[in-house]
Amino acid sequence: MDSNHGSPVPIGKSRLGIFSSLLTCSQQDQPVSPGKYTRSGSRKSAASLDDVRSNGWLDAMKASSPPRKKLLKGSNIQVASIDHETEDYLSWMLDYPSALECFDKIVDRAKNNKIAIFLDYDGTLSPIVDNPDCAFMSESMRATVRSVAKYFPTAIISGRSRDKVFDLVKLTELYYAGSHGMDIIGPACDSLSKVHPDCVKSRDDQGKEITLFQPAREFISLIDQVFKTLVEITKDIKGAKVENHKFCVSVHYRNVEENNWTAIGQRVHDVVKDYPRLRLTHGRKVLEVRPMIDWNKGKAVEFLLESLGFTDRDSVLPIYIGDDKTDEDAFKVLRESQQGYGILVSSVMKESNALYSLRDTNEVMKFLQLLVNLKRQEGRTRDRP
Fold first, then answer.
1. What predicted TM-score, i.e. pTM, was given to this entire model?
2. Which of 348, 343, 339 minimizes the C-alpha distance to 368?
3. How distant is the alpha carbon of residue 11 from its chain centre?
4. How many other C-beta atoms are found inside a 10 Å radius of the C-beta of residue 207?
5. Which of 97, 113, 155, 211 is a Cys-bridge partner for 175, taking CB atoms 3.0 to 4.6 Å apart?
6. Torsion angles phi and psi, residue 345, rounded to 5
């Protein structure tokens, strides 16, 4: 397994304002006036609340993060329920076996091939927390990821803005794709600019050549308008948090009382309806507003593989580890191409395009450490006289 690859460094923020002509915002995309909402609820009539219920969004919001089990002292029924769920989970793992237990099988396919590592951030490298600003990765995880990047080309593909995820990870050895892959820094590649109009060669803060790709650059001002509107119309909902990730907006409802989920879902839904070039998606207790372009984490993986020079599918084994619904696009790409492996991070049962599973961030770290140890053992074997 060859580990030769460049060492990217995040590009300076001042270099990101490069315009392109891939997409042009619709003239119909006009901001909604925050004043159309009242402190008591939606600008629509009460009957319009059925929009979120009838189209399945409320159910999706509830299903995006299953509640933790509450243990009742002295309740044999609860214990029986837990045992039953454990049995179901073990049955689920027959379809999504542990990547730790199947480690030898996974790396056996990588013989004579190069391994490329793709990682989500929240819920994969850091635990899910109530305040997304406090989703810090542990120093042991940071050291592990740094070691992985020493031996394998490694990229983090996150829904957060690229600048934000870099501030959290603090490793210059990686490649970064923020906003679900709509803001990518990868290794320099001359051929990509011929295929992707929004792909440009640039230099990072240390003067190294890199590839910068931002397919939704035309939407920056529109996303900022929607962000300001969403901040205004959700400010009376206790616990709601709105984040601007430059190319998408996240509305977190993790700390919102469940009886207010319908209200927050409806308000976000009503705003997005007035922007025909934007779409609404959901992740783990978060609603996300994104440009309606044909781009996602799966396409980001393909782009990064191409920029790394892995045009021959038989020469590389991509491994993607993630926990959220948005990672399914990457899992699907790897599954359908039979090119690599998707690994779902989950302690609960859910349908996925991944082939393997890990329970939590601790198991993610163990899996990554196994990869590092394997590479080190190979090095010691080669060094023997």
1. 0.79
2. 343
3. 20
4. 7
5. 155
6. -95, 110
